[in-house]
UniProtKB/TrEMBL annotation:
This is Protein ApaG. HAMAP family: ApaG (MF_00791). It comes from Pontixanthobacter gangjinensis. It comes from the Bacteria. Residues 8-132 form the ApaG domain. The lineage of its organism: Bacteria, Pseudomonadati, Pseudomonadota, Alphaproteobacteria, Sphingomonadales. It holds the Pfam family DUF525.
Length: 132
């Protein structure tokens, strides 16, 4: 099945695409737990080799509570992308509300040790409505 990327952002010829899905089988609304999985594709359309070093997420729930998450690499990896290469990974996000959003940036370095930030597009997290 072909993945449908719903959100995209481009910074310095690096494109970040996001597809997000609600996972009802891992959610427990009666316990105040909702879970989403997101698929990220990073595309290096530049003419330089770049390496993803770190990530910064801003996760907001339906109450307006903001959680900042910083870390090295993505899912334990610091991928090196030659010109024209892509990197895909899948991760997840739990919330204590049935909706929210995510956005952020990756920090990359070049072979010359230049550091730059690449925007991760804003994307909503929304559970389907359920009948009470």
């Amino acid at each position: 099945m072909k993945q449908l990327f719903q959100h995209a952002a481009n910074t310095d010829d690096i494109t970040v695409r996001v597809a997000v899905s609600f996972l009802p089988e891992q959610s427990h609304p009666e316990a105040g737990k909702w879970f989403w999985v997101y698929h990220i594709r990073i595309e290096n359309d530049s003419d330089r080799t770049v390496q993803l070093k770190s990530r910064h997420w801003r996760i907001t729930d339906a109450r307006g509570m903001i959680n900042h998450v910083d870390g090295e690499g993505v899912v334990g990896e610091t991928p090196l992308l030659e010109p024209g290469q892509t990197h895909d990974y899948v991760s997840g996000c739990p919330l204590t509300t049935p909706s929210g959003s995510m956005e952020g940036f990756y920090t990359f370095t070049t072979r010359e040790n230049e550091q730059f930030e690449v925007r991760i597009p804003y994307f909503p997290l929304s559970a389907p409505a359920t009948a009470d």
